[in-house]
Amino acid sequence: MDIKLTIDGKEIEVPQGTMLLEACRKAGADIPTFCYDPDLKLAGSCRMCVVQPKGWRNLVASCVTPAQNGMVIETESSDVVEARKVVLELMLARHKLTCHTCEKDGECNLQDYCYRYGVTESRFAGKVHNLFKDDSNPFIERDYDKCVMCTRCVRACEEITGARAINVMDRGHHAHIATAYDGSLEDSPCVFCGQCIMVCPVGALSSKIAAGQGKPAQNDKVMTTCTYCGTGCTFELNVKNDKIVGVTSNRDAEWSPVNKGALCVKGRFGWDFVNSPERLTTPLIKENGEFRPASWDEALDLAADKIKAVKEQYGPDSISMFSSARITNEENYLAQKLMRAAIGSNNVDHCARL
Amino acid sequence: MANYMDIIAGCKDKTGGIIEAYHAIQKEYNYIPEEALKEAAKAFKLSEAQAFGVATFYSYLSVKKRGKYIIRMCESAPCHVAGADEVLKAMEAYLGIKVGETTPDNKFTLELTECVGQCQATPVVTINSEPVFNVKPEMVPGILAGYK
Amino acid sequence: MTQEYRVLLEHADKINPESAADYIQVGGYKGLEKARSMNPKDLTEEVKKSGLRGRGGAGFNAGMKWSFVPQYPETKYVVCNFDEGEPGTYKDRIICQKNAQALLEGMAICGHAIGSNNGYIYCRGEYPFVVEMLKKAIGNAKESGALGEFNIEVRMGAGAYVCGEETALIESIEGHRGEPRFKPPFPGVEGLWRMPTVVNNVETFACLPYIMTNGADWFAGIGAKSYPGTKVLTLTGDIENPTYFEVPTDYLLRDVIYELGGGVKGGKKLKAVQVGGTSGAFIPSQNLDTPIDFDSMGAIGAALGSGAVFVMDESRDIVDIINRIAKFFEHESCGQCTPCREGTFRCKEIMERINTGRGSLKDIENLKVLARIMQKASLCGLGQAAPIPITSTLEHFEYEYLRKLV
Ligand SMILES: Cc1cc2nc3c(=O)[nH]c(=O)nc-3n(C[C@H](O)[C@H](O)[C@H](O)COP(=O)(O)O)c2cc1C
Ligand code: SF4
Ligand code: SF4
Ligand code: SF4
Ligand code: SF4
Ligand code: FES
Ligand code: FES
């Protein structure tokens, strides 16, 4: 059943059960959010998305308030704007504002909304927390002096990854994100998937591997498929001056149908080998105990000759193939076909079976 | 002293009863030891981070070691106007510690609390949850001398 | 009328609250019997007709609340809110310690109305001795057969004022951090373990046996029309008789203080009185001739709340007290939503500044903005009510602030 409501003077129809946030967006209103995440359970806690239903005493958080028939909503009334400004000022009052060196610069919700509402400084500035934690892990930088306590990281860790490594500890103004006993990620069930970085709306969580090599907002993004395994996760290589400088993920299901942006530690953090000077760039052939560079033609001919020789002397069953999860399904199909049809052996196996 | 494994096992059948388990553990240990918290997390199917988040949410619970007697001074408005500050100062002076600290002999831990619901006789102090009424600064040594 | 009118506390100290037999002797469990002879719909109607409104602070019509509970699911819960965290309040403890069986009977009556045999009492962690007593009282009532199939389990809070908020309370029973849920859904539809749940205050439940035995009309005729019945009040602060009283709800605040309370301590003049606990408004002496009922209090910008009455004499420093109250909210905010988590902290910071003579007019202006947004945009009642002591004293006692500025 559809319900009718008026949003910023525009009448629209939405199905029963639609949240105001969605209805407002449908009506063309741009609603700012921090804690809302379409893939995670609702929190309704940042209060950035507030709107004014006509005749109601209080503002409502649009992300958790179902649209009602006949509602009249204003999304930028003076009260709404004042509330959003105060929310931003309250966040700024404890924020380590270092946009110039921040990895999130240019795609940070806090920065963008402060710009949008002209919030330059906070009327409520006072004590700050100093929550920065020198977490020795190689992958994730945790700077909770930039945290806005949206708890998206906690929810992503539980709902997407299932690791439940982090949670909120303490309460009130002392509340902050922590592992059990406020320890390091390495001592927790964290699997370093980096889903928490992906969902963080500000620069509180960032990649140590990509740090300082280019702000993600300014890098070129090349959509590609992860080569580590056959799952086929999509991600974006961050490219700067023709060099890979990082990995971010696109959460849009149309672009990332397999993983909706979620990755594992290898995909998100295991890309720096690409630029390694130790990487092999040609095939190598071993002669007299030493490797020498060779062309692909030479190397493949050599391999074919040797396989043929073994097959002639010992029969096809003496040959087996062990293929890799890092190649695609189609490539694996071709691999077993090579064994069965060309070489004549059924000895085919695959590392993903182990 | 009861083993925390037994204590936790005793509460396990209460759905969501981790707070009950924490109460029972604290009754024995005066705080929630790390191993006990981890055991409770397992029993109630929470992650350790979640169990820790619960334990640190409630001000009646502590994950830090505390003394044998936990003194909590009420500082809510009715006790405040009745002179809670002076009583607190007398406590600190007598024990030689500040709020949040434990005496070196591990006997007393001094904490602040909000109203404990005994406002008919302010200011109020509780010692291991037993309320003491109408406390005056000069009564402090006499009251604490009773705790061996 | 300046007398107490005791209904819930009529037999206080004359019966053993643990004993169902004692209670039955003074007419107890008759109400449940009558309730069970009625069909649930009629029972709910009867409670609605009595006009009984919640005694926990929000003042919602009890029967109305029950009527929102859907019929179909098998599992539903009756939850008693015995968190009693409002500073200056101990009336629920008194009701339990004097008349625990009435609470149990009231819960069972509600159970019959909504079709539930599962009761929980959530008692604050500061009352371990009351928990023991309640467990014995439940055991005794079960043994005597008075409760029938209705079961009651006692769960303990652990030092969190916010767990008095009904959805935080539910989270806490479930073993979680006591963070309020956003509403809707309301507990009546999705409460404890996501099943329909009625949450009522101790005093609300304890009224029910008397409504059932004496009739809805009898109850509706006591005290104020729009908020009938009696109310247990607790007097604290600068008062001659710092104790509890049960009065009809049309009782005047002035009489609470000067008749029952014996007047301001030491014969001093009254400066202000805060009703309803620490989140209540400060009422100046010119508003004392107001009945204590929910709507009359609301009309003067105050709230009956939990029924705590905190009296301050002429010598009291309002700003110092507000500073203390600001610290309370900073300590008790659950930390979930931005306006309250950060706002309560900044309120405390600003109040501290003003109280120690370092504040400026700018601070007062900022306080007002912050207060407005906390009230309008916080997730739960804690953050929405936290600025009320500040705004009400800025309204009535602004000079106390101004004289402390640099
Ligand atoms: C911060 C906060 C604290 C509350 N504390 C209590 C409490 O201690 N006891 C209580 O009965 N209700 C308390 N309430 C009100 C409850 O949310 C709820 O309205 C009440 O339990 C409903 O019962 P009633 O209708 O019988 O009053 C509190 C509400 C808020 C927002
Ligand atoms: S998190 Fe955002 S606002 Fe904060 S320093 Fe980084 S870019 Fe700036
Ligand atoms: S990296 Fe993954 S597992 Fe580790 S905390 Fe973040 S979301 Fe959880
Ligand atoms: S670290 Fe980021 S995602 Fe996590 S709570 Fe803070 S701001 Fe939100
Ligand atoms: S208003 Fe305060 S107590 Fe309520 S949800 Fe927000 S932070 Fe928590
Ligand atoms: S986005 Fe709606 S409350 Fe955070
Ligand atoms: S105010 Fe101290 S016990 Fe209630």
Short description:
Chain B is built from 7 helices and 4 strands. Chain B has 148 residues and is of the alpha+beta class.
Key terms:
heterotrimer, B: 148 residues, alpha+beta, Glutaredoxin, four-stranded mixed β-sheet, 43% helix, 12% strand, C: 406 residues, alpha/beta, Rossmann fold, Ubiquitin-like (UB roll), de novo design (two linked rop proteins), five-stranded mixed β-sheet, four-stranded parallel β-sheet, globular, binds flavin mononucleotide, binds iron/sulfur cluster, binds FE2/S2 (inorganic) cluster
What does this structure look like?
With 354 residues, chain A is an alpha+beta fold. Chain A has three domains: 75 residues, Ubiquitin-like (UB roll); 154 residues, Alpha-Beta Plaits, CATH 3.30.70.20; 70 residues, 3-Layer(aba) Sandwich (Rossmann fold). Chain A is built from eight helices and 16 strands. In chain A, the strands form six sheets. In chain A, strands 2-1-5-3-4 form a five-stranded mixed sheet, sandwiched between helices. A three-stranded antiparallel sheet of chain A has the order 10-11-12. In chain A, a hairpin with an 8-residue loop joins strand 10 and strand 11. The mean pLDDT of chain A is 95. Chain B has two domains: 54 residues; 77 residues, Glutaredoxin, CATH 3.40.30.10. Chain B contains seven helices and four strands. Chain B has a four-stranded mixed sheet, with helices on one face. Chain C has three domains: 201 residues, NADH-ubiquinone oxidoreductase 51kDa subunit (Rossmann fold, 3-Layer(aba) Sandwich), CATH 3.40.50.11540; 84 residues, Ubiquitin-like (UB roll), CATH 3.10.20; 85 residues, NADH-ubiquinone oxidoreductase 51kDa subunit, iron-sulphur binding domain (de novo design (two linked rop proteins)). Chain C has 406 residues and is an alpha/beta fold. Bound molecules: flavin mononucleotide, iron/sulfur cluster (SF4) (4 copies) and FE2/S2 (inorganic) cluster (2 copies). One iron/sulfur cluster (SF4) binds next to helix 13 and helix 15 of chain C.
**What does the average pLDDT of chain A come to?**
95
Number of strands of chain B: 4
User: What oligomeric state best describes the polypeptide chains here?
Assistant: heterotrimer
Strand order of the largest sheet of chain B: 2-1-3-4
Specify the overall morphology of chain B: elongated
User: Based on helices, strands and strand pairing, what is the structural class of chain B?
Assistant: alpha+beta
Helices of chain A, by number, come to 8
